[in-house]
Prior knowledge:
Blueprint: H1 3-8, H2 20-29, H3 33-52, H4 61-79, H5 84-97, H6 103-108, H7 113-131, H8 133-145, H9 149-163, H10 169-187, H11 194-210, H12 219-232, H13 238-264, H14 277-280, H15 287-304, H16 306-309, H17 313-326, H18 332-338, H19 342-360, H20 363-371, H21 379-394, H22 400-417, H23 422-432, H24 444-450, H25 457-485
Helix pairs in contact: 3-4, 4-5, 5-19, 7-10, 7-15, 7-17, 7-19, 7-24, 8-10, 9-10, 9-11, 9-13, 10-11, 10-24, 11-13, 11-24, 11-25, 12-22, 12-23, 13-25, 15-17, 19-24, 21-22, 21-23, 21-25, 22-23
Amino acid sequence: MSVNTAEDSRTKGGSFKLKPSQAHDHKEDDTTLPKRLLTIACAVMVGIILFLLPAPAGLGHDAQIYISILAVFLILFLTEPLPLPIIMVMSAISLVAFGIDEVRNVWAAYADPVVFFVMGSLMIAIVVEKVGLTDRLGRFILRYTGTNVVKFSFVSCMGFGLASSVMHDVAACAVGITAMLPLIKAAGIKPYSRTGAFLFLTLPFCSSAGGMGTLVGGGRNMVAAAFLKNITGIDVTFGQWVLYAFPVAVVCIAAVWFALYVVFRPDLSLHFRPLTKEQLKKKPFSPDEKKTLAIVLLTFLGFFTKTWHGMDYSIIVMSAVVLLVLFGLIDWKTLSEKTEWAVPVLVFGGGIALGSAMSSSGAADFLANIFFPLFGGRGWLMLMVGVGLFAALITQTMSNTAATALIIPITIPIAIKEGVNPIIIALTIGMWTSFSFLLVMSCPPNVLAYSYGYFRPSQMAKAGLLAMPAAMIMITLTAITWWRIVGLV
């Protein structure tokens, strides 16, 4: 069935049923064995050619091998000749086989706290949908947006995008998806269709973009502020970060949403089912809804107070999962069957392993040494754009927090040397690492959205190629105007 045919199909008399695992099986059936082997062979050939080329000055042996391996797997990520979790396992095997990292370090990445955070978020979303809270939230949004799919998407993305400034972007994305999913199924919007991909990519993209708005919007912001204080003694307060970054977040969310609208051109004739008179009636919360809502709110409270109690996000989320099972809101067998384990563990864990290897192999330092001199000595704006562009590119293959920790100690001394306010650099890295739009493994919201099986990695990369420049342009324009008004530059 073609994409356009799938776009216009509807289900009658019931909702469209699809488990995440079934959605991913659809892709596997599309590719014959000879085609898969040919794709893999072509990717390997590219890697071999890169390795055999003369190494540039400053590029070590391990770094050259890593770059060759990364090129192979970037091709495999986008073409997907095998399921993405299997490709990520292959990347781990390659890192060990070619001596880039030790086996213990590579597999340890698959048990990173962020992996458990994403997995716990998926589990909470399953329970929230089971007890009916997502249906209630979806009806609430529909009352204000109407049934138009595009209008619903814009309002949801702006709302949850801004919410990610004060809560973890994965949590904001999870709430948005679980509210939208029953409506999508009832409307018969198909996986991999233009509208399906649009709806499931706008939420993670806008949630990531909104995370730059405050210091608590993401670990990258806190890391940037902490390094700035350690290196220069300058302490950026919560209020200062909001003043400088929140207006930028607002325009970036809108720009990212519009970029995805241009890429996918969702079917404007599609509408969610209108609310019936029965659905418009306000109903009291059921006991299970009250228990689940209380646990979810307790989880968010744990996120907000992390700087006080010091517990990792993964501990907070998995504690919530324990409570959900303890209070009988879901049984373990059902939770285990419905959780798409392979996506957070293998896909995101593999991404963490690749990102760590980029640093340990010396590839990240090599790329930084050839990139930053291109923008030095040309004023704060060019330095901001250069540092931001490098940060946005490198965060595609490692977590944004890790990318921030890697880049900022290199770039702040450069800014000080050139007489540029180092606060600009800290803000730049915290904001531009929000644009993990090219690869599924780049950040937790992408992994979460991908687990539902409504878009392919190639569709994500296509959308990211326009969303990233759109967000970068908006950041630059806002910095030129807003930062001048508030006296930062």
